[in-house]
């Protein structure tokens, strides 16, 4: 099993100076196939919409790293691991800057970037960046259009939503076109995955909260919809995030990962261990244990 892990970008482990570089380097040496980031701009004291499953926000979100910086650091100290995001709240960023940042990270990593994008759910974060939350769906479509042009044309011109890119030379191109994966379970989000994305970003919670056929059935529908849209259904990839709840034992995580991977057969799998560790040392220890357990499983 090719198993990846979350970089220490949230919580107490994130506050360790040099911690991301150390973890990325040592996790790759231990056998981690991927290194992944999430994205959180704010942890409001009294959020308009609490984090799912919480009355407010998890304590881990009180301390967060910039995801682009984390990926750039990981790119500098690793050689083979996929560098992924699940997910970047893509529509909270200025699109031209966003395109340049993704391209730069892909080049720095020699083509290892897997950008997983979403539209977020926090009204507080949208208010902080001055972007109307109601426009997030159409802004994502616009961003996907810009990325396609940015990565394929020598000169780029784009009339976007609330911005315009004058015809400009864009000589920095990714090593290979990064495979854009999109998150979501809603009808519109899944339609966008089927019609526009290179892959889907499902989530599997541990302890399990729903049967595996929720994911396998959704994936089958996505691939059927992709085929109806004139696309190759077999080319639609899957990057699975496994969310381990606080207090979950490594053996339970490994057992659940082995189960879901055997039926969903994702192209990439990573375990988000942000809620299970409070130091880089613990992050590394748990990474090693899970690699050992899944190798046996």
TrEMBL record:
> Any idea which GO molecular function terms this record carries?
alkanesulfonate monooxygenase activity
Entry keywords, A to Z = Flavoprotein, FMN, Monooxygenase, Oxidoreductase
Give yes or no: UniProt keyword Flavoprotein: yes
Annotated organism of origin: Amycolatopsis australiensis
Q: Which GO terms describe its biological process?
A: alkanesulfonate catabolic process
NCBIfam families hit by this protein: F420_Rv2161c
InterPro entries reported for this sequence: Lucif-like_OxRdtase_Rv2161c (IPR019921), Luciferase-like_dom (IPR011251), Luciferase-like_sf (IPR036661), SsuD_RutA_monooxygenase (IPR050172)
Looking at the record, the residues that make up the Luciferase-like domain are: 13-261
Q: What is this protein called?
A: Probable F420-dependent oxidoreductase, Rv2161c family
């Amino acid at each position: 099993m090719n198993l990846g892990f979350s970089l220490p970008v949230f919580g107490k482990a994130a506050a360790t100076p040099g911690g991301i570089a150390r973890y990325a380097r040592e996790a790759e040496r231990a056998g981690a196939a991927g290194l992944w980031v999430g994205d959180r701009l704010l942890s409001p004291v009294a959020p308009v919409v609490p984090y799912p499953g919480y009355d407010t926000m998890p304590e881990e979100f009180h301390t967060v790293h910039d995801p682009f910086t984390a990926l750039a650091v990981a790119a500098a100290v690793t050689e083979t691991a996929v560098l992924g995001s699940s997910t970047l709240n893509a529509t909270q960023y200025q699109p031209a800057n966003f395109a340049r940042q993704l391209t730069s990270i892909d080049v720095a990593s020699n083509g290892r970037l897997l950008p997983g994008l979403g539209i977020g759910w926090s009204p507080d974060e949208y208010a902080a960046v001055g972007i109307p939350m109601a426009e997030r769906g159409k802004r994502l479509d616009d961003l996907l259009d810009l990325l396609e042009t940015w990565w394929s044309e020598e000169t780029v011109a784009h009339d976007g939503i609330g911005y315009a890119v004058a015809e400009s030379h864009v000589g920095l191109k990714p090593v290979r076109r990064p495979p854009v994966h999109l998150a979501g379970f809603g009808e519109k989000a899944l339609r966008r995955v089927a019609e526009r994305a290179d892959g889907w970003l499902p989530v599997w919670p541990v302890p399990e909260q729903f049967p595996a056929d929720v994911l396998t059935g959704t994936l089958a529908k996505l691939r059927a919809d992709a085929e109806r849209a004139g696309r190759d259904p077999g080319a639609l990839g899957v990057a699975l995030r496994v969310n381990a709840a606080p207090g979950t034992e490594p053996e339970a995580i490994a057992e659940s990962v082995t189960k879901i991977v055997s039926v969903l057969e994702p192209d990439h799998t990573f375990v988000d261990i942000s809620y299970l560790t409070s130091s880089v040392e613990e992050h590394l220890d748990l990474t090693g244990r899970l690699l050992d357990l899944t190798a046996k499983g």
